[in-house]
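## Example pair
The file below holds two records. Each record gives the amino-acid sequence first, followed by its structure token line.
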Amino acid sequence: MQNRWLRGVITIVLVVLFISTLMDFLNAPGQTPTHAPYSTLVVSAQHHQVATAHVDPQSHVVTWTTPDGKQYRTVYAPNDTQRLSNFLNTEGAKVSIAPTSANSMWLSLLGDILPILVVGGFLFLILRQGQGGNRMMSFGKSQARMLSENLPKVTFDDVAGVDEEKQELEEVVDFLKNPKRYLDLGARIPKGVLLYGPPGTGKTLLARAVAGEAGVPFFSESGSGFVEMFVGVGAARVRDLFEQAKKNAPCILFIDELDAVGRMRGAGYGGGNDEREQTLNQLLVEMDGFGVNEGVIVMAATNRPDVLDPALLRPGRFDRQIVVHRPDLKGRIQILKVHTRNKPLAKDVDLEAIARRTPGFTGADLANLANEAALLAARARQKQITMANFIEATERVIAGPEKRTRVVTDLEKRVVAFHESGHTLVGMMVPHGDPVNKVTIIPRGMSLGYTLPVPEEDRYLVTRDQILDRVAMSLAGRAAEQIVFGEVSTGAHDDLEKSTNWVRQMITEYGMSEELGPMTYGTRQDQVFLGRDLIRQRDYSEEVASKIDQAIRHIVFQQFERAKSILLQHRATLNRLALALLEKETLEGEELREIVFGS
């Protein structure tokens, strides 16, 4: 916008200069005359020193020449044109009077008006810039977008893996379609519905599906869209948003990433007087204050419900709070069906097998997985997406793309082979280990190799023995290096970190230590303005801290020795696994189990 106005100003200036130059050229076709006073003209005429005179009634200028060819220019009084002409004729000068024409009138008029137009143009531009104050006032207008009818309509059929959540929201849809049925029974529909859960689980998609099913206007706004640098803008936008919603009631008002504006009050450095808290206060008033918001249902999504202000979560504001979990095995199968229904799949594609290989994946992860498989098939010029494409896409999402061009020395390759063989062997020998589906020494992402255990079922509880088996498997890579090479490498850095964290959680959070008993130690500090998990405050003595350190060290060392014992007991199997990896680089499925357990 500013560039366009600048170009306009430059154009006006250039036009003014051009017209000014043109007028000078038309008015002075020959040499530039010398200005002379009116008295000089009179005296020269009386002495017969005026040979010719050209009188212009429009500009009230007489241009005269002397007998020797010198040219002068004199301004006379506006009403003296005829008298001056008669005087010059009497004194023997050859007089000519310029005719009054439309062109000369317009040139004269333009010369008078053009400066006024230029000044007026500049004033107009300044006023337009001054109206930035009006635009600043327009900051108080809500930036919410109404879902366009031209966009693809999303319904509950497009949302899979969240059957219970959809059932909760169907009640909201039914109220919007048939409000009389509920009002006759004295029921009150929830004023607000809060969707929370891990990122990528489909919270925003669920909200769009509710709007698609109900067929009502759907206003969408981000929590960060309310807060600006100017004080009072956020509160004004909240008011304007609810005004728009009331005019279009019944409707759904959706606020994404609610934690950006709904964080707990009094936690920031600005106390209760900062812009975000004023915006939150206005939101609280609009949702359940003296005003009436009949027919306006507020939906919001966040993955940080722990930092929201308690006043926002009470009944009467967000009455219904729906947790959107990561999908289970059945849910992952349904989600894969949704994201592959428009893709040509080969006959060997088994969606259940893919779902089993992706525990913990969210709906967004599975959508990305299906897209990656399609990209791999297109890159290979295939007409259909095969199971191999899905397997490769899964590993790309988990560990990153293959790095076959990475130069690895023979010694490093042997170390990685025995390291991964240690993980695999111990993982398959411990009683609570997950079945190892694949092991490879082909570099992927940041790792030089990896072992892929796949749980047989989804787990929501973990026992102490399962954690200990997981720690033993994690430490088995380092144990294998020590047994075979007599020294250890930096390749076990991540294994050591994960093992230590698991054991620390066992003791301090889950109370699974025999020495310290069924107690939790330390209070989690989730300061909402400093970030999450910044520090775990110690609420115990130095003596207890020393016992915790000793317990962690004891369990980690115990599981490390346990892993070494298993590997020494099956040393021949460890060697076979490592040699097979060095030869084939990747082992999986039946081939892997045959090497470990024999035929």
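Second record, same layout:
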Amino acid sequence: MAEAFVVTHDVGTTGNKSCIYRISERIDLIDSCLVEYPLYTTPDRGVEQKTDEWWSAICGATKIIMARSGVVPARIKAMTFCAQMQGSVLVDEEGRALRNPMIYLDGRSAEQIARYLFNGLIKIDGKWNARTAIESLRITGGLAATPKDPLWKYHWVKDNEPDLFKRTYKWLDVKDYLILRCTGRYGMTRDSAHLTFLYDTRPGKLGWHRGLCKKFDVNMDHLPPVVDSTDVVGHLLPAPAAQMGLVEGIPIFGGGGDTSLTTIGAGCLDRYDTHVYIGTSGWIISNVDTRMVDIANFIASILGAIPGFYNYTAEQETSGACLKWARDHLALDDIGMYGESQHMVDKTQEYETLFDFMNRVVSETPPGAGNVLFTPWLHGNRSPREDSHARGMFFNLSLDTGKREMIRSVLEGIAFHKRWMLEAMERKIPHRERLRFVGGGAKSDVGCQIMADITGRVIETTEDPQNAGAKGATVACAVGLGLLASFSDAKELIPVKSTYEPRTRYRELYDKNFEIFKKLYERNKALFSILNSRAG
């Protein structure tokens, strides 16, 4: 294989990581840099970010890695993005964002979803208008079933900011906006198009569906062209090239959302290959070759980047975010090293230190965390019980409980939730004895062992698991450049680095605690609603 260097950007919830990869007989990470940006919340459950802060993080991180690596800019052959999904970025005719993007965590559109879905005499699961839901499921394979879905964000702006909405030219997801800013060209990959639930995903019928747009009052002129992850959307313009320290004219590929490209970067390239991801959010995804949906467990398949496959996905709203919470509120005063480093430009070393600490402290704490259980629903629950009112809690604290048990219980709680999702998924897919584990959570040896012990599966990790999304974006570039004939050819380039076997001596303990974990939601569901439901 000819050698090539590419730049990829992993645009996450709390920061952007820019990476340089060399593609040859291996996929080697040359350098990476993480630059954070904030979230902005509103009293009505809105969660926004600023496009200029995304852009500043991307340009700043790219300049840093180009300078540090010594790679000559002319040797960069392509660039693309792996990004958070289900955002809503409205732009005017000049491609300027009309307002702060509403990201996937934004749940303020309760009134909008109620108007379109929570009506009619016959309902599915006691909530959704049966006729509308069945039509959406038939055409798209899914349903915009929560206030956090992009369709309702679109309508929220239409209802609440009508003058601004009138200036809308296109409606984009996060990476699609960033590609527009790089190239001046519009395009949306199929995964993001699917998650509008206006896109026909039936084999042979791929495209925006006029009937659904009419039903949901969406102007089809607002919808961009749909592209594949390996398509060149455009080429890097002179101004952004200068801001990034790159040369103009570099092809910018469509890339994809984090779920699609992390699947590839995990080395899950065959049917039923399944991976666990812990980043800010979390999920379990399996490759399937037919559309699947499990309404009761809030699991569905979406179009991925690999032709012919869908990603059968169960999502956890807050996963690694729980680890960050534990860092800030439990570990901080124990290790006393995060004060000034909060202002670092490159946050990578801070996270290395965090995981080193967690490896040591949690490994010194006995499995089961003294029978303390943590529920990782800090921003609600999604799969297998969709509930925006659910919240986190520590259960069974005693006078003997210390911070170490609490920190370990956070890791165990995240793993319990992954087991809950996995067992629901395997009602429709074959049982998987081996799982790939990627994301920042997979950097922790003890976290990997906990995942193996609690799920009862063999856990496999890869090199740089925290960069699986960026690595998947690199594979998309390699296929787009013709360096690889297909995605499946990348399998040998993403080998297993470490393997963790479940320890049978802890099976009884974890089985018992898992059953209690599941009951904590069912027995507190009504109380969560009383405490956390509010008008608007």
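Notes on the second record: The mean pLDDT is 92. Residues 507-532 form the longest helix (26 residues).
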